[in-house]
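G., the chain you wanted modeled:
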Amino acid sequence: MKNLNRLNLGYNNLIGVIPSSFGNLTNLTFLTLRGNQISGFIPPEIGYLTDLTYLDLSANQINGFIPEEIVNLKKLSHLDMSNNLISGKIPSQLGNLKEVEYFNLSYNNLSGTIPHSISNNYMWTSIDLSHNQLEGQSTTPHEAFGHDKGLCGGIKGLSHCKKRHQIVLIVVISLSATLLLSVTALGFLFHKQKIRKNQLLKTTKAKNGDLFSIWDYDGTIAYDDIIQATEDFDIKYCIGTGGYGSVYRAQLPSGKVVALKKLHSWEREDPTYLKSFENEVQMLSTIQHRNIVKLHGFCLHNRCMFLVYKYMEKGSLYCMLRDEVEVMELDWIKRVNVVKSIASALSYMHHDYVMPIIHRDISSSNILLDSKLEACVSDFGTARLLDPDSSNQTLLVGTYGYIAPELAYTMVVTEKCDVYSFGMVALETMMGMHPGELVTSLSSSSTQSTTLKDVLDSRLSSPKSTRVANNVALIVSLALKCLHSNPHFRPSMQEVSLKLVSTKSFPQPISAISLLQLKNEVI
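Predicted structure as C-alpha cells:
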C-alpha cells in the first residue's frame, strides 16, 4: 500500500509493536494509532515518512526513547505522543520541526531538561510537556520559554515539571496562558464553525435552495428521497423518540438505511427545541469519533426540520437491557466493550477536542448500538463547550437518575458531571438494570457483605474466563469511583479510558469480591 495517503487505526484495541515496515508508506500524510494497546519502541523507520503532517501515537503503552529520526518529518504540524511510557530525554533536534503547531509529550516518563530549541521556539503555538520528570535549566521565564508571550501562553501544565523557578512560572501561566489559550481556542473554533457553515450553505444552495445540507456522505441524498422513503414521515416508519422530536428509519433508493430525527410542528415554534436542534448540528458537524453517532446532514425545510444520522440497528442500550430476549446477545465481552466505547468517546470530548465538550445527558437511552453491538454516544442537543473563563452555570438538564448530585445545588456544569453519569451507565450495563439506591447504600452496614456476583445481571451466567471476570470487576470498581459524591475525587474520563485498556488482576473470584472492596480498590 505504498500509495496510501491517510491511515487511521485509532481506538481499535490493537496490540503488539509498531512494525518497522510502516517506513515503506512513504506517501502517508496522516497517521494515527491513538487509543490502542500498542507497546514496544517507536521504530526509527518512522523517519522515512517525510510527507507526514499529522502523527498521533497517544494513549498507548509505547516505551523506549523518542527516535531522533522524527526530526526528518519536516512537514509535521501535529505531533502527539502523550499518555505513553516513553522515557529518556527530549531530543533537542525536535525543535527544528518548524511547521509544528501542536506538540504534546505529556503523561510520559521523560526526564532531563527542556531543550532550548523547544522552549525558545517562537513558531509553535501549543506545547504540553506536563506530567513528566523534566527539569529546567534557565533562570528566568523568558530564558526558559522565549520572549514571545504567545509561546508562554501556549505551554500547559508546567507546574508539573521540576523547575527551580516554579512559582514565577505559575504566575506567568495563570495570567497569560488562561487568556491566550482560551481566546486562541475560541477564535479557532468559531473560525472553523464559520467555514463549516459557509460550506454547508454552498452545498445547500446547489441542492435545494437553502433547504437541505449533507456532508461527508458516500452518495447523493435529496429531500424528495427522504420524503418518499418515509411516505412523508408516516408513523409506521417511526422507531422511537429522543430528547426532542421523533426518530424514523428510512431506506434510500441506493439501499442505504439512515435514521432521521424530525422536529414536531409545535417544537419548530419553540425556541428551546430549535436551540437543541441547532446545537446538535453544530456539535456533531465538528466532532468525529468512532463511538460518537455519525451525523450525515440536516434539513431546514419550511415544512419540516430533521437530522440525518447513521442508522444504529439495535437501538438504545436502555431498551436492549430491558428486552428479555435480545439482552442475551449482550454477553459480558460485549458489555465490557460497550463501556470501553462510551469511556473512549467521553475522553475524546473532554480532553482531545479544541475545547472540552460536556454532554450533560449521558444515560443508557442515549447510548446506541449497531448490528455488531458497537456503542455510540448520541443526542447532543444539550451538549455545550466548557468555557474556562466562564462560571459555566447552567439550567438543570439531563435524565433523572443519571444527574450528578452537585448540579442540584451548584448549577455549575463540569466534566465531572459527565463522569458521574458514565458511572451510572457503566453500573447499569453490568447489572442489567439501573443501580437505583445501590450507590447510596454502599456505606451502610446492611450492604457491606454484598458481593460483585450479587449485583451482576443474573440473566447471564458468571464470566467464565479470568480475563473477562477481571474486566467486569475493573469496570464496576471504576464506576463506583466515578460515582463519588465529591466531584473532586472522581477520576477524569481520560484516566478511566486508559485504565480500561490496561490489565488489572483480581486474585479472588467474583463471588468473593465485595462491592466495598471494589469501591476502595487502588487502581
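Residues 137-186, 188-212, 214-219 have pLDDT under 50 and may be disordered.

Shout if anything looks off.
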